[in-house]
Amino acid sequence: MEHADHVRLLAGGVTHGEGGTWADLGAGTGAFTLALADLIGPHGVIHAIDRDRAALAELRSSFVSAVPHADLRVHAADFTRRLDLSDLDGVLMANSLHFVAHKGPVLALVRGYLRRGGRLLLVEYDTDRGNAWVPHPMRFETWQHLADEAGFVETRKLSSVPSRFLGRMYSAFSVSP
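Given the sequence above, the corresponding structure tokens read:
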């Protein structure tokens, strides 16, 4: 996938230039972080969270060399444990939740980081069958059920793109009540 594909997957859940404070949980080297930054614009803040310090260093480097956009704050941390985040306008989980077998506790943490009306954007493979590299993906219908159980509302599919790995990826949007 290219940058335009990343932006297209997120675009339905972020109003261009809206700013705000977001977290990218499992940011890695930042392909989706850069897309989010393009969408929220220069008045936004993104907390990029990942356990891999080298990936975060690569993200910071690519972020600095890109066109100026949102304020980036990197944190080497495990998103499956409580983070010092609150009152966020949004959380992005792109290709990260599929590494978590028991998603409920993580989603409870995420809901706690969001302000009322805050958004959770998910990018996931559209299958319930994983492999060694993507151990716990979920179809959109599975995500709808899980998001509802976790207390999110207004869950809807935003977009999808073909994937050479597991057929198709989708993006979804849910709201914290």
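Strands lie at 20-25, 44-50, 71-76, 88-94, 114-125, 153-163, 167-175. Try to locate this feature in the token string yourself.
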